[in-house]
Amino acid sequence: MKAIVYHGKEDMRVETVPDHVIQSDTDVLLRVERTAICGSDLHLWHLDSPLGSAGFVVGHEFLGRVEDIGSAVTDIAKGDRVLASCTIGCGRCASCRRGFYSGCAVASQGGAVPNVFGFSAVYGGGQAEAVRVPFADVNCFKLPERLSDEQCLFLTDILPTGFMGTELAEVSTGDRVVVFGCGPVGAFAQRCAQLRGAAQVIAVDPDAGRLARAAARGMVPVDPTREDVVARILELTGGAGVDATIEAVGKAELVAQAAMVTRPGGKVAVIGVILAPIEVPWPIFFNKNLALRTGLVNPQVYIPHLLPLIEEGRLDPTEIISHRLPLAQGREAYEMFAAHRDNVLKVVLTP
Q: What's the chain's average pLDDT?
């Protein structure tokens, strides 16, 4: 089958790899119909073997039709159109039973491997013609036929991640909110803040095209290349600061800025992927009584709540799609996304 394979820094190749097969009686084999490049995939693009290996299929945002099933699968049948959670849980360990599938002790082999599709050879990614999904009854979700692939695709990761950011920040009716980042995750965090009743959502990003998109969706744009972010946000909030701040980029320095623009007693949520240790400006958090929360998303928890919002037309995930390309152009798609070329926001690939 054809797939996008990681070989090192800025080295993604579309190659022919061995077909997936059922390995366990809880597996399903999924024929991929849509997949996408996530911002966290760019960590692989920008770094040389950050996980200590290469040669594996990438991608954790995908959906498709079930082609084969293991003998123990009960809730999924051949021919079902399903999406898979980006994080893999067994459904039975202590972490999974608490709803923290991203911390699954079984799927991560005790923490020895990332239990996210497309970050190791153990769980091959979905930027491919097919993918094996373990613990299918836990990690696969059947989709209403009246919804398109593109309406459902981002439930695999970035839409739940954006919503989780608003939950961690406890966004509620009448709140003023800052979201650092207007990329796909930031865009969904902004939209979900609106859904939760935020009175004002301030979007911060140096990309003029992405800022313009945010403004068109009703956000207040702030460009850090043109204005002092802290001063501008304090001006917009009458000097008080915002009730909640969401960091959706993955830059350590933005955590400090988040603390500076959040009012005393407010909340800071970090959903951007930060790979290295950071210095937290603890005196600011302490003196302002700020809450700091973060974590890896558990889509299994959020999909049942977000899917009805899409079905009822209250949420349109397709609004972030800027480019549609065949899987065969995967390398070009990565290059464009990494360089922010052609006003790119989200790339969807079709195998």
A: 96
